Amino acid sequence: MALTIAIIGRPNVGKSTFFNRLVGKRLAIVDDTPGVTRDRREAMGSLGDYKFKIIDTAGLEEGKGKSLSARMWQQTEKAIEEADFSLFMIDARAGITPLDKHFAELLRRGNHPMILVANKAEGRAGEEGLYDAYSLGLGAPVAISAEHGEGLAELIEAFDEMCRELGIDPLSEEEEEVVSFSVAIEGEVSEEEEAESEIDPGLPLQIAIVGRPNVGKSTLVNQILGEERQITGPEAGLTRDTIGVTFDYEGREIRMFDTAGLRRKAKVQEKLEKLSVADTIRALNFAEVVILMVDATMPFERQDLSIASLAVQEGRSVVIALNKYDLIENRQEVLKDIAEKLEHTLPQVKGIPVVPISALTGRGVNKLMPAVFEAYRQWNRRISTSKLNRWLAETTDYHPAPSVSGRRVKMRYITQIKTRPPTFAIFCNRPAAVPDSYQRYLMNELRWDFELPGVPIRLLLRRGDNPYHKK
């Protein structure tokens, strides 16, 4: 097992900035606003020769009952219990606060191994706070600057000492092989290699859960995982960062991303929400299957269609999870309304699967992952060239392309040039003269005849004869 380290401390001391530095990427949203991080975020990080799992946590705040701060503290407690040791971070420039003292005492009583880290210690402004840190009773503080990368050599020494005390030898572990998720797919394929040849079960299936605020995205993640992994509640906009969680489903590794809710662009004014939206769109771009969550108790709004359209434009396969389905009475009418709106608004992806669920009770959730796997299979689908050309001949014989200026448009050859999403190229004599309506006809026939529901299809028209007629 890899070494696991949690970064803890009160709000706005620089935990997420240091998390990003250890990971080597800007994964966590960083802003001057206190309390940006709410859920715990995990990633693989490194420091010197050390490789470890690092957990970024919410700022330590007091809270009781079911308040948001109490729920955030529960998530931090889980991170501390999971970690081999923690980095307790303070702000050297702000000095020691009563909140620092309170949680230092609380954690000291819990006998959790930790290293005291004094952030923002660069220059003389942090000297007084650095000396005051000794009063916390957590040992000598390690002075660092997460923003500028100072003090990391001293932190490595503290890692060495802590690992010796705990009897851990993480440097003896073999490094995991780094696998690229980028797969180039070009060229021809035989009939025997059709359909399943593009799926690599050794790579994690990347899923992004998107939707408007407060539709139940985090609740769904918790329901699938069977634990309170994400903070949930009646408040809208609880999730700010895009949080990735890895789990195993029926022998397949899944990487699922819980994202911040997407409101209409005109309503997004604050800088922090803009950062959250950008983080969500980035997760959508890297996903292979997008689960669009819709609240069944609210009308299927234009924003839902905009999010679905965004996923389709990026070429992602889409599954709609109709949440809170158990709370409505006219269920068939709601399903019919959604199907009609999708049919008229997103005709390029006819047949998007709609799965009624209740994320809170778990009803219908067992049907969601099979729908996701089927959408993923269709997204990776490859159809042999011989089948495609038999289809093209039959389709154009039944409904030929319209003549333009008295000249016929001849569809000569078709091949699938890539998958993810399925992309086809048709060679013809006058590609610029083919009307959009006829292109839609060909795409609809492709989808219907080869059973590709709910998957974006790309159709490219190219000028030329059959490029393989001499072979």
TrEMBL record:
Molecular function terms, GO-annotated: GTP binding
Binding site for GTP 1: 9-16, 56-60, 119-122
Presence of the UniProt keyword Metal-binding in the record: no
Pfam family, one: KH_dom-like
Keywords: GTP-binding, Nucleotide-binding, Repeat, Ribosome biogenesis
Gene Ontology terms: biological process: ribosome biogenesis
Gene assigned in the entry: der
Gene3D superfamilies: 3.30.300.20, P-loop containing nucleotide triphosphate hydrolases
Protein name (database record): GTPase Der
SUPFAM superfamilies the UniProt entry points to: P-loop containing nucleoside triphosphate hydrolases
Sequence positions that bind GTP 2: 211-218, 258-262, 323-326
SUBUNIT field: Associates with the 50S ribosomal subunit.
All residue ranges annotated as the EngA-type G domain in the record: 3-167, 205-380
Glycosyltransferase keyword on record: no
Biological role stated in the UniProt entry: GTPase that plays an essential role in the late steps of ribosome biogenesis.
Domain of life: Bacteria
